[in-house]
């Protein structure tokens, strides 16, 4: 990697930084891991936004209520009963528990969905071979990022549940990774954004069988080289491709790493993989 590339990948000296951090079910479903993560998240002094997935809580509560969870290729089918369930669990139970814990840690958080203040409008996914039900695809150009900016300017940390809305009164179940990426792209007009995906591994591995083989910095040239050499696990490729798509749309940096390394991953001395 050249000196110029190293300088480009550094956050040192960047003004107006914003960290947009996404956590998934592996943290949401583990109270101890969530408590540790939120304690670290609260220590971040820069502007920050948290987006959380749904975890297995909706499936568990749905079973108690007699609502069967249906999946196709690992994706939840969100029918009329299920959208009510995930709205209650994601936008209510999971989101407000996180907000309450953050308040206890001194972070003035506000729990949000995409419907609140019309922040994230979306469209119901069209039916092709599969009808996913009330699942939303985000209209990136319609994101009301000025509202999010208002919260940040006033020392309030937004915490987004994985829900959007269609403008016609319907809540839509929406992929949390996509919400994080869409917010990062929209807010890159106002901030120098580092989008952080908290991942099951320490970062992108050069050798999938060696957890110590984390690639610390990854630019497009090195990525193409690794792909040609077939060194990367195929399952990580879509996540990296999406990271470069976010960068092409204005996001300064994307980082993939372990939630337990959050503090270091908001610095130049990152433990995870910084993509730029």
Automatic annotation (TrEMBL):
Its EC number is 2.7.2.8. Gene3D superfamilies: Acetylglutamate kinase-like (3.40.1160.10). It holds the Pfam family AA_kinase. The keyword Nucleotide-binding applies. GO terms for molecular function: acetylglutamate kinase activity. It is an enzyme of class 2 (transferase). It comes from the Bacteria. Keywords: Amino-acid biosynthesis, Arginine biosynthesis, ATP-binding, Cytoplasm, Kinase, Nucleotide-binding, Transferase. Catalyzes the ATP-dependent phosphorylation of N-acetyl-L-glutamate. This is Acetylglutamate kinase. It comes from Niabella pedocola. The gene is argB.
């Amino acid at each position: 990697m050249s000196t110029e590339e190293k300088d480009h990948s550094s956050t040192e000296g960047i003004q107006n930084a914003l960290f947009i951090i996404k956590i998934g079910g592996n943290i949401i479903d583990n109270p101890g891991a969530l408590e540790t993560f939120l304690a670290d998240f609260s220590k971040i002094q820069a502007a920050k936004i948290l987006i959380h997935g749904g975890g297995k809580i909706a499936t568990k509560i749905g079973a108690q209520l007699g609502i069967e969870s249906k999946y196709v290729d690992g994706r939840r089918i969100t029918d009329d009963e299920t959208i009510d369930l995930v709205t209650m669990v994601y936008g209510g139970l999971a989101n407000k528990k996180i907000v309450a814990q953050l308040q206890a840690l001194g972070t003035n958080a506000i729990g949000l969905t995409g419907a609140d203040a019309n922040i994230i409008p979306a469209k119901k996914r069209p039916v092709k071979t599969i009808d996913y039900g009330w699942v939303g695809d985000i209209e990136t150009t319609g994101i009301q990022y000025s509202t999010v900016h208002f919260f940040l300017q006033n020392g309030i940390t937004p915490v987004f549940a994985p829900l959007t809305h269609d403008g016609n009164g319907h809540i839509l179940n929406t992929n949390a990774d996509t919400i994080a990426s869409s917010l990062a792209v929209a807010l890159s007009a106002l901030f120098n954004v580092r989008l952080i995906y908290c991942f099951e591994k320490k970062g992108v591995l050069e050798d999938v069988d060696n957890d110590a083989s984390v690639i610390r910095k990854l630019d497009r040239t090195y990525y193409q080289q690794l792909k040609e050499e077939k060194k990367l696990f195929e399952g990580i490729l879509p996540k990296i491709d999406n990271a470069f798509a976010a960068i092409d749309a204005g996001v300064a940096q994307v980082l993939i790493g372990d939630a337990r390394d959050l503090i270091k991953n908001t610095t130049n001395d990152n433990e995870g993989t910084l993509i730029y």
